[in-house]
Amino acid sequence: xxxxxxxxxxxxxxxxxxxxxxxxxxxxxxxxxxxxxxxxxxxxxxxxxxxxxxxxxxxxxxxxxxxxxxxxxxxxxxxxxxxxxxxxxxxxxxxxxxxxxxxxxxxxxxxxxxxxxxxxxxxxxxxxxxxxxxxxxxxxxxxxxxxxxxxxxxxxxxxxxxxxxxxxxxxxxxxxxxxxxxxxxxxxxxxxxxxxxxxxxxxxxxxxxxxxxxxxxxxxxxxxxxx
Amino acid sequence: xxxxxxxxxxxxxxxxxxxxxxxxxxxxxxxxxxxxxxxxxxxxxxxxxxxxxxxxxxxxxxxxxxxxxxxxxxxxxxxxxxxxxxxxxxxxxxxxxxxxxxxxxxxxxxxxxxxxxxxxxxxxxxxxxxxxxxxxxxxxxxxxxxxxxxxxxxxxxxxxxxxxxxxxxxxxxxxxxxxxxxxxxxxxxxxxxxxxxxxxxxxxxxxxxxx
Lengths: 227, 211
Fold this sequence. Notes:
Structural class of chain A: alpha+beta
Distance between the termini of chain A: 24 Å
Low-confidence stretches of chain A: 219-227
Largest sheet of chain A: 5 strands, antiparallel
Oligomer: heterodimer
Strand content of chain B: 5-15%
Strand content of chain A: 15-25%
Radius of gyration of chain B: 18 Å
């Protein structure tokens, strides 16, 4: 387990990215009976290695004890907050853009899906750290994600201020407060004793986004939207 | 060379075979335009149609597009030599504030597969850039994409800027993306909204031909 220190930005880069061919294929609507399944397998074997090589997975998190963040109304009345941001880095983003630029839409699309899956794997790993911390302190958490379900995307500015994302892991904010590289995920966890502790960060079956492709993959899949 | 055979191989996604057969066809002095139309674009049209009807899925389209690209890489110089003109020119991008590009890329792919010259200007594109690029390229269509409700409103700014520059009538404006609807297209006075990449390419072709 990663050492957890309060009131300090912690950077972690010990992620192991594996990918999951079956799930990625399902999200791409590639089924075993497809006439192009074999060709897709060949492409996957090639690009998964390229993706692993290009990815630079890094995360930051910050546990704020006795938080009193006035700019985020959703945090009012809660004891603690955990701010986090993770990214698979710009390298894979550039690789994907290059594939599309060269007209290789197949490899571009597949890499994009793999990159999504990598960020989900990272979410899983990072949440386990947060989970252990919460469990140890008899607390639970609600995850909020800027830009989702009414939680203002502008709150990314607060995250930037707390985590120094650009300086620490190269994640920048666009003028419209989106994260770049795009394959980055940010969260604000509202933490308190009265909140139930969830072992899983997200369960697709409870998610309101019924059209999400990842939801359709398997019951145990997660899409890590705010829940 | 039987162009139907190229078409069959393209639909199977046999990129190398398509490339070799295009080479052979050129060596036999076949008209490059005929190779393009019958050997490459026609089967890609069939692929698009099947995709629209949910008879095939994205991987089959991607594999076919890869074969198309392989064939085009050999055919393009010959097309330039005979002065072949594309169906039309499309400038495509994701609007300012939005960094998503997968949907936009799929539309670009399908437009190319329909015979368009596509100028992909990327993500986070300002109104000025859309219009300047369209002017520079002599485009027929401006295609805008957005994945977020917070950024789709920027499409209005592009249309307003076109009006401001007295260029609105010059371009066909197409919009798309997850939150975009036909109602929204009407509201902002875009010419077309299409729900998927295959339809976008088909509508773009019809729009240019009837312009």
